[in-house]
Amino acid sequence: MERHFDLELADLKKTLLTMSAMVEETINRAVSSLEKLSPELAREVISADESIDRIEIAIDDKTFDLIIRHQPLAGDLRLILMAGKIGTELERIADLAVDIAQRTLKLAGQPLIKPLVDIPKLSSLAQQMVRDSIQSFVNLDVTLARSICKRDDEADSLRDAVYRELSEIVRRDGGLADRAIPLILVSRHLERICDHATNIAEDVVFLVEAKFIKHCGK
Amino acid sequence: MKKIIEVKNLNLWFGEKHILKNISLDFESNEISAIIGPSGCGKSTLIRTLNRMNDLIPETRITGGVLLDGQDIRQEHDVVTLRTKVGMVFQRPNPFPKSIFENVAYGLRVQGISNRREIADRVENTLKAAALWDEVKGNLNQNAFQLSGGQQQRLCIARALAVKPEVILFDEPCSALDPISTARIEELLLKLKISYTIIIVTHNMQQAARVADKTAFLLMGEMIEVGATSQIFKQPKDKRTEDYITGRFG
After folding, report:
1. Inter-chain contact A69–B184, Cβ cutoff 8 Å?
2. What's the CA gap between B233 and B180, in Å, rounded?
């Protein structure tokens, strides 16, 4: 039987997709702002955050409304609860992109301490993980979701490599700390983005299989 | 959205008993309005007032007014015209002891339509609108009592739709139905609101939440609160509404 409710669920999914596209774009811009040391791009990222916040609120409102009106059960309930959680994860990712843009503003006006190598790698990984996590949600693809969880270790390694390399530079010349610490923080922000993408992937596994795999669950 | 029915300071007594207490409420076109409240709060009496179903109850006294399209239903409309414009579907399916076809055709014949082709077309279109056609198209001459409860209720909806009403009143239309038949009726209501004004009385709050655009809460004959359904169930303004919908009483 065709359900009116399904149209509303499809609408909720569509809103999440719009949000995720905006979030992906904002990560991309934040990292570009750093690579180009562009305060203009950084400020664009900061000002775009408000519209992402508004979508998060709209998703919260919609999920609340769907729960009130449809008293969903089983797969419908899991979908609505996870959609709400994924909205929150995406909003946190956008906030981390803003944090990266803030670091750009700190660094702008002086040359980078060294050419960026691992940070762009980490940034590509983060964007890919976010994209795949949303793709796994759209297609209810648990194989893809599980593969994202595995990639999180790679993100941790890249963050550690950035930390090791920059802390070595600071150890040799303490005067470079002001230019090294923001980059260490950027690697931390990007690694946190990967964590949020992993959370989304774990939510997708719960959505499909009703199994918690977070905190080392299988 | 246009106001179709306006209830203004409506009071109703059965003998000495004051059943509806100064109720004012509007019903808009293309909207589903739900009236909720505990048993005996007056919700059925309220909608039965809208097409003058209480007229036959002895010692009924009414003050205040009900306007349909701006005209007083007791002064400007005769009962037959009024009930053509304001149809009703009851708690228990009550098809006539006739064929499926004749149940729907009955109202058309009463309206003086005799052209067989026209009647056949209207019956088919109405059964389609009531989401029953696909299930009965091969058996239109079958006795309506042979249908399942849910199908009988959709037939009653078709019977109400056949005479092209403006408003359809539903008095607990799913209380005698199983969950699947209930879901079918609810889906049907959501489709019908595109063309009709729908008012539904239900003691099932979840049903009101699922289908209604607007919900009114009635308690002991008083209109406690009326508002957008999402507001009523998210953050009711009156504590009595909150107590009722959260199951603290009722």
Report:
1. no
2. 24
pLDDT score of A3: 84
Mean per-residue pLDDT, A108-119: 90
- The SS3 of residue A146 is helix
DSSP-derived pairing of the beta strands B71-72 and B214-219? unpaired
Q: Where are the alpha helices (DSSP H) in chain B?
A: 43-50, 79-85, 100-110, 116-129, 133-136, 149-162, 179-192, 205-211, 229-234, 239-245
Which of B184, B190, B233 comes nearest A68 by C-beta?
A: B233
Could you tell me how far CA A131 lies from the centroid of its own chain?
Answer: 9
Two structure tokens written together for B86: 């304001």
| Residue type at position B74 | R
What pTM value is reported for the model?
0.82
For B88-116, what is the HEC assignment?
A: EECCCCCCCCCEHHHHHHHHHHHCCCCCH
The structure tokens 């408003």 sit at: B167
Integer-rounded Cα Rg, in Å, for chain A is: 19
Average pLDDT, chain A: 93
* Cα B53 to the center of its chain, rounded Å: 12
Region A14-21: mean pLDDT is 94
Chain B residues touching A68 at Cβ < 8 A: 209, 230, 233-234
* CB contacts, 8 Å: B233 with chain A: 68-69
User: CB B230 to CB A71 under 8 A?
Assistant: no
Supply the ipTM of this predicted assembly.
0.71
Domain boundaries, chain A: 2-209
Closest-CA residue in chain A for B180? Answer: A1
- Tens digits of residue pLDDT in B164-213: 999 999 999 998 888 888 998 999 999 999 999 999 999 899 999 999 99
Fold category of A2-209 in CATH: Methane Monooxygenase Hydroxylase; Chain G, domain 1 (1.20.58)
How close is the nearest chain A Cα to the Cα of B143, in Å? Answer: 26
- Rounded to whole angstroms, what are the CA distances from A177 to A88, A117, A168, A184, B57? 34, 19, 11, 10, 90
**Is 60 exceeded by the pLDDT of residue B131?**
yes
Hey, which residues does B18 pair with through a beta bridge? B13
A6: contact with B, CB 8 A cutoff: no
Note whether A68 contacts B: Cβ–Cβ < 8 A: yes
